[in-house]
Design brief:
Blueprint lengths: L3 E5 L2 E4 L3 E6 L7 H5 L3 E7 L8 H10 L4 E2 L2 E6 L5 H19 L14 H21 L5
Antiparallel strand pairs: 1-2, 3-4, 4-6, 5-6
């Protein structure tokens, strides 16, 4: 496993700031799952990290506020039978989560007016439809 996990561009998470914990996976699996600590829990202290630029850190703390516990983000993976593959999956998931949370906000939408021709065509169609329906009524009987 590499020492760095790239978030975006040249910014990466140093291995020293990642806290790993291993435990037994739940669910079916027989003898293997009962004896192997394959589930991985990866914790990253987002509030105290020096690896992210200050602007990114503020943005991530704001966007991930619901997932944080005392400024620490936790990712738990147990989808593979191998601890090694679960470690890789957890690191990739954490990096993707941070990349999405630190992305710059989208450009604000510029409101545009409905073109006059489209509005006039819509009103013409409404008028014609109304006349068609009016022609179906049985007033002359």
């Amino acid at each position: 496993m590499s020492g760095l996990h790239v978030v975006r561009g040249s910014v990466s998470l140093p291995e020293a700031e990642l806290m790993w914990r291993f435990s037994r996976s739940s669910g079916p699996g027989g003898q293997h799952v009962n004896t192997s600590d394959t589930q991985v829990e990866l914790r990253f202290d987002l509030a105290r990290t020096e690896a992210l630029p200050e602007v990114w850190k503020r943005r991530a703390l704001e966007r991930l506020a619901g997932r944080l516990t005392d400024g620490v983000i936790t990712v738990r993976v147990s989808e593979h039978r191998s601890q090694w593959r679960n470690r890789e999956a957890a690191a990739v998931r954490l990096a993707a989560l941070l990349a999405e949370a630190t992305a710059p906000p989208p450009k604000p939408r510029r409101p545009t007016r409905v073109p006059r021709g489209i509005n006039e065509r819509r009103l013409r169609e409404k008028k014609r439809r109304g006349e068609t329906k009016r022609g179906r009524s049985a007033r002359d009987w």
